[in-house]
Design goal:
This protein is of the alpha/beta class. It is built from nine helices and 40 strands. The strands form six sheets. The chain has a 17-stranded mixed sheet that branches. Strands 14-17-20-23-26-28-30-33-36 form a nine-stranded parallel sheet, with no helix packed on it. Strands 5-4-1-6-10-7-11 form a seven-stranded mixed sheet. Bound molecules: uridine-diphosphate-N-acetylglucosamine and magnesium ion. Magnesium ion binds next to loops.
């Protein structure tokens, strides 16, 4: 059966007290709306319709291409929000999944289960419920003695007995499309001045039709976001969910409570992640790596068997068997080839370090190329910026840069060359030559076998 999804996101989200629209607040590094869109799209295999309010430019920009926007100009409730999609969807699909865009922890397989339940039953709709202790202000599910669903009562309108009901309306429904469009105009206006989608349940019951229900797979799915406190709760639940998934895939995570893995991250088998490690943006970590503690890896690629301790890596490519840290900073365009060693207090930006380069302590390498097996002494700096331009430094293979060398770019250090400690190198150094002094001069040719 064909199923289309409608995600409701036109609410104001006032309880967030934010200038940013609620559904754009990040969860595990991506706007929360992305989680809902992804889950719905996975379940229905088509782009969902997203009901947005007026002044929703930011949301539309963010979700552009991932869904079809429908505007609800007046916020007259969840039922009214669904009515706005009628023109686009009437006659086009068998089933309609409706979900709230502020429930990012609902899983694709939960949506699939509601869809399957509705496609296998003759009633007009299936609802998603949860039995949890905390009521969260959700609507309560009313059943008769035989367990048949009678209606959903909003907390605002509930009697104390009804409030004591622990079965909650999570806020995801699958409707038979024809029945929905035929009956949605009959929704009554509540005393709050809204058309409640939840009243579709009592409409069905009045017609002697059976309303089916499906329960959530895990209790964390009911975390809906109305406040910043809920957001923190969702972040925590999502973090543990993501971490559990990676552990299932064969990654060791020493402390899942303090390991932060984003939506768009890949991690190879037998990698060990130490506490307080953050993998952000589009990041890929290889197999058998050891990462952390206290590391941030953002939009970077890390090859197999590499080790990174207490370091920040952004926009970098790290090949296999590289050792980094503690306290290193790799920035945009850093490329460390196989077997590079980068020790404490090093910074590398927009530079390629060929295999076997060693950069042990206190160095800045920017806009440079460093040849194979070159050793960069402690305190070396590529003076790449002359106040106007960024200049390139080219250091050959098998070079030995003495401690505290200033390499004033643009500059070329030839293959096998050496610089003396404390040199300020302003002119190119030929292959196999030793330059020293301030400013540095070539003081001797070196033996090739040196
Ligand atoms: C709703 C349900 C409640 C359920 C809870 C679970 C109704 C009447 N109540 O209550 O039974 O337990 O969700 O999450 O449906 N929205 C619009 N347009 C509107 C109003 C809301 O698009 O005019 C969107 C909101 O952006 C939000 C969703 O619909 O994503 C739910 O609205 P909200 O006001 O949060 O409803 P709840 O009071 O949480
Ligand atoms: Mg809500």
């Amino acid at each position: 059966m064909k199923c289309e999804a409608v995600l409701l996101a036109a609410g104001l989200g006032t309880r967030m007290k934010s200038r940013l629209p609620k559904v754009l607040h990040p969860l595990a590094g991506v706007p929360m709306i992305d989680w809902s869109i992804e889950a719905c799209s996975q379940a229905t295999k088509v782009k969902p319709y997203l009901v947005v309010g007026p002044e929703s430019d930011e949301v539309q920009r963010q979700a552009d291409g991932k869904c079809i926007f429908i505007e609800q100009t007046e916020r007259l409730g969840t039922g009214h929000a669904v009515m706005q999609v009628r023109e686009s969807l009437e006659g086009k699909t068998d089933l309609i999944l409706v979900a709230h865009a502020d429930m990012p922890l609902l899983r694709p397989d939960t949506f699939e289960r509601i869809i399957t339940c509705q496609s296998e039953n003759s009633g007009p709709l299936t609802i998603l419920t949860a039995e949890v202790q905390e009521s969260r202000g959700f609507g309560r599910i009313k059943r008769d003695e035989s367990g048949k669903i009678q209606g959903i009562i909003e907390e605002l309108h509930a009697t104390p007995e009804e409030r004591a009901i622990r079965e909650l309306n999570v806020g995801a429904y699958v409707f038979s499309a024809d029945w929905l469009w035929e009956n949605i105009p009959k929704l009554p206006l509540s005393t709050k001045g809204e058309y409640y989608l939840t009243d579709m349940v009592s409409l069905a019951v009045e017609q002697d039709q059976t309303v089916e229900s499906v329960s959530v797979t895990s209790p964390d799915e009911v975390i809906g976001i109305n406040t910043r406190e809920h957001l923190a709760e969702a972040e925590h639940a999502m973090r543990l969910r993501i971490n559990r998934r990676w552990m299932e895939e064969g990654v060791t995570i020493l402390d899942p409570e303090t390991t932060y893995i984003g939506f768009d991250v890949q991690i190879g088998q037998d990698t060990v992640v130490h506490p307080n490690t953050h993998f952000e943006g589009s990041t890929s970590i290889g197999e058998d790596c050891r990462i952390g503690p206290n590391s941030i890896i953002r939009n970077s690629v890390v090859g197999n068997r590499s080790q990174i301790e207490a370091s920040v890596v952004e926009g970098a490519i790290i090949e296999e068997e590289v050792e980094i840290g503690p306290f290193a900073h790799l920035r945009e365009g850093a490329h460390l080839c196989r077997g590079v060693h980068m020790g404490n207090f090093g910074e590398v930006k927009n530079s390629r370090l060929e295999p076997g380069v060693k950069l042990g302590h206190f160095s800045y390498i920017g806009d440079a190329h460093i040849g194979e097996n070159t050793n960069i002494g402690a305190g070396t700096i590529t003076c790449n910026y002359d106040g106007k331009n960024k200049n390139h430094t080219d250091i050959g293979a098998d070079v030995f840069i003495g401690s505290d060398t200033m390499l004033v770019a643009p500059l070329k250090i030839g293959r096998g060359a050496r610089t003396g400690a404390g040199s300020v190198v302003t002119k190119d150094v030929p292959d196999w030559s030793l330059a020293a002094g301030v400013p540095a001069r070539v003081i001797r040719k070196l033996d090739n076998h040196d």
